[in-house]
Amino acid sequence: MKDKYGFPLTKIGIIGGGQLAKMMAQSAKRMGFFVLVLDPAPDCPASSVCDRVLVGDFYDDNKIREIAEASEVITYDIEHIATRILKILMDEGYKIFPSPALLEIIQDKFLQKQVLYAAGIPVPKFKLLESLEPGSFKSFGFPCVQKARKGGYDGRGVQVIRGYEDLKNILKVESYLEEYVDIEKELAVIVARSSKGEVKCYPVVEMIFDEQANICDMVIAPARISEDVKEEAKAVAVKTVEILNGIGVFGIELFLTKDKKILVNEVAPRPHNSGHYTIEACITSQFEQHIRAITGLPLGSTKLLMPAVMANLLGEKGYEGPPLIEGLKEALSIEGLSFHFYGKSMTKPFRKMGHITILDENIEKAIEKAVKAKKLLKITSEVRK
């Protein structure tokens, strides 16, 4: 078996040049890989750390073929990309992880639910919405959640329908209905599976959401739940990745119901917001793990070194323009705090602009510090919207 590598180790192509690609590239470059990204913006976040940027659309067959031909393995940091050309390229022998077939399942959230349900994965009750007439919602039952089949992310494409009064807010797109789950906590598990079939699972975390934007606001690691629930959540998450035959790192979003049942909410076929804490808090970050998984290297340890809290830094309401970071010096004086800024050239309300991670032996103290830092750190602009 080959265990000799030249430099660079391998050429990795990433479709998408956002913050996830940037953090993947940082890990890959540290290890000696060559990194290319494809993104519509030449100044995308990953451009500052990768070797080469191809400027082009995620649905441009020619550009996707170009990055494939310049790479030895392909991955992506965004789901909303062309799969037809990726399937053709894979048939031609190009290495693409996770696979285009898996990506097609993930892109259609209704199909995703069908595949998981058929495999025995616990999911909320769901049904295809065949009509936008009030009767279709009533027959399913209030309250319910309408979800767009395609294109939704960061809270977009989701509408809670509590009764007839909310029908004026329905999404006028292809969608499905899901039961409104009475949850105790929203959880997540990062699962890594390599091209050799090796599987590693990170600690179960809990996610706290910004109710106004429906975006993850804070991640607490480890989750404040019983050991039995942790083990069940990990088992469900690992089974989910295995039945999808996933290769790479996956974020498995879960509901913990009031009666202690675990249900799968969604699957992300890439490093996930809920795993950013692993950069400081785990022996191997989710980003290095993804690189290891797709290049056939042994997976690293997922051990949690210290309890951690990650908080997203979102663009403030009322501002849209070149970003200004307020409160940085005072925030960095908080013991255990690490600051990450993604390098996006423009801020807008609720856009993910960066994150902080706080390590502390006491998880409750870490939460207190994160809340304090969130009050100090503001991403604004000289341009008001």
TrEMBL record:
Species this chain originates from: Thermovenabulum gondwanense
InterPro entries attached to this UniProt entry: ATP-grasp, ATP-grasp_carboxylate-amine, ATP_grasp_subdomain_1, PreATP-grasp_dom_sf, PurK, PurK_C, PurT/PurK_preATP-grasp, Rudment_hybrid_motif
Broad EC category: ligase
Cellular-component GO terms for this entry: cytosol
EC number: 6.3.4.18
Record's keyword annotation contains Lyase: yes
List of residues binding ATP: K109, K147, E178, E179, Y180, V181, E186, N265, E266
Name of this chain's protein: N5-carboxyaminoimidazole ribonucleotide synthase
